[in-house]
From TrEMBL:
Keywords: Lyase, Magnesium, Metal-binding. It is an enzyme of class 4 (lyase). SUPFAM superfamilies: Enolase C-terminal domain-like, Enolase N-terminal domain-like. Residues 136-228 form the Mandelate racemase/muconate lactonizing enzyme C-terminal domain. Its cofactor is a divalent metal cation. This is o-succinylbenzoate synthase. GO terms for biological process: menaquinone biosynthetic process. Signal peptide: none annotated.
Length: 361
């Protein structure tokens, strides 16, 4: 049995600007498990800096090496791995990287595609796009291109002071498209009047307007604003999802499997949302084809009722580290039908992009 990691350095096709910074390169952290003739790959959704959440590549690698890796040595069920690892507080992205390896391993062992292994799959994912900030003409051009490709929902990044300019310019050109905005926690409880000005633009939701770990002020905002609130950063567990619905902090959740310790909790959160008449979709963290394969399998679950940030690989990287990138047709991506996550790894390219590697056990 062998567990290895590769830290890659890959240029993005288009720099991605959010309220917390601009990504020009991404440094994907990839894991490879080999056991009983089965090879599984997964990706930690951490990046080099702790700007989206407190985790980064170094903390993920540290926690995995020192605490989590020992918990997968007998290839337990994913849920059992999470139970064993529950003494480690937080570090969900690190946990997710190993939890997903276990899902892929189990599915491959049974010869089943991951989306079927997870159950209730519609066989495809409904796809939306997340567009970073740029000058407004470039943003409009990107939306134009995305609409031609038949993306089912357009999400644009906003930040404090830029929101009205961005949204009104888009609505001038596209009064009726399915449009949302993502603030990545750039506003505070003092900005409610400003945020309420977005109500007239008929947005499908506003994503994470306030503090990255907040529920209470979001609940307060939800009572004042008519645009539905979607939480991303704040929802780190099924328990927090339940609390969010209990106090009315959101009606929509962006589920990122990496943020919630993996697929087990992603499914739990989707069920909680359904029980509370909420909506859910699968987000992304600019993953390579490795991480993307888990997101797409999850997004195909029938509980996922909104289009996600699950663009095909070609949005992000000139050449992906998988040999079989997804194609999008009519705003949907079909699941792979090979066993497990179905990806075919381009080992040559991984070696080319690797800036660090190591054997964990
Ligand atoms: O907030 O959803 C976010 C990317 C990196 C970090 C945070 C976010 C995002 C995205 C892009 O919006 C989603 C994607 O296309 O992978
Ligand atoms: Mg977000």
């Amino acid at each position: 049995m062998k567990l290895e990691y590769y830290l890659l350095d890959m240029p993005l096709i288009v720099p991605f600007k959010t309220s917390f910074g601009t990504d020009v390169n991404r440094k994907p952290l990839i894991f490879r498990l080999e056991h009983n003739g089965i090879v599984s790959y997964s990706e930690s959704v951490t990046d080099q800096d702790p700007f989206y959440s407190y985790e980064d590549n170094d903390t993920a690698l540290h926690v995995i090496k020192r605490y989590l890796a020992q918990n997968i040595k007998d290839v337990p069920d994913p849920e059992e791995f999470l139970t064993r690892s529950s003494n480690i507080k937080g570090h969900n992205m690190a946990k997710a990287a190993l939890e997903m390896l276990l899902y892929d391993y189990r599915a491959r062992e049974m010869g089943k595609p991951l989306h079927e292994f997870l159950g209730d799959s519609r066989g495809y994912a409904n796809v939306g796009i997340s567009i970073g900030m740029d000058n407004i003409n470039k943003m409009i051009k990107r939306i134009d291109d995305a609409l031609k490709l038949k993306y089912k929902r357009i999400k644009v990044k906003i930040m404090k002071g830029e929101e009205l300019k961005i949204v009104s310019a888009i609505r001038d050109v596209y009064p009726d498209i399915n449009l949302s905005v993502d603030a990545n926690s750039d506003y505070t409880e003092k900005d409610f009047e400003l945020l309420k000005k977005l109500d007239k633009f008929n947005l499908v939701y506003i994503e994470q307007p306030l503090y990255h770990d907040d529920l209470i002020y979001h609940a307060r905002l939800a009572r004042e604003i008519s645009t539905p609130i979607c939480l991303d950063e704040s929802i780190t567990s099924p328990e927090k999802a339940q609390k969010a619905f209990d106090i009315g902090a959101c009606s929509v959740i962006n589920i990122k499997p990496g943020r919630v310790s993996g697929l087990t909790n992603s499914l739990k959160i989707a069920r909680i949302a359904r029980e509370n008449n909420g909506h859910v979709w699968i987000g992304g963290m600019l993953e390579t084809g490795v991480g993307r394969s888990y997101n797409i399998a999850m997004a195909s679950n029938k509980l996922i009722d909104y289009p996600g940030d699950t663009s095909p690989n070609s949005k992000y990287y000139i050449r992906d580290i998988v040999k079989n990138p997804y194609n999008m047709e009519d705003g949907i991506i079909k699941d792979y039908n090979g066993a497990g996550n179905g990806i075919e790894i381009d080992e040559e390219l991984i070696n080319k992009y690797a800036v660090e590697r190591g054997v964990i056990f």
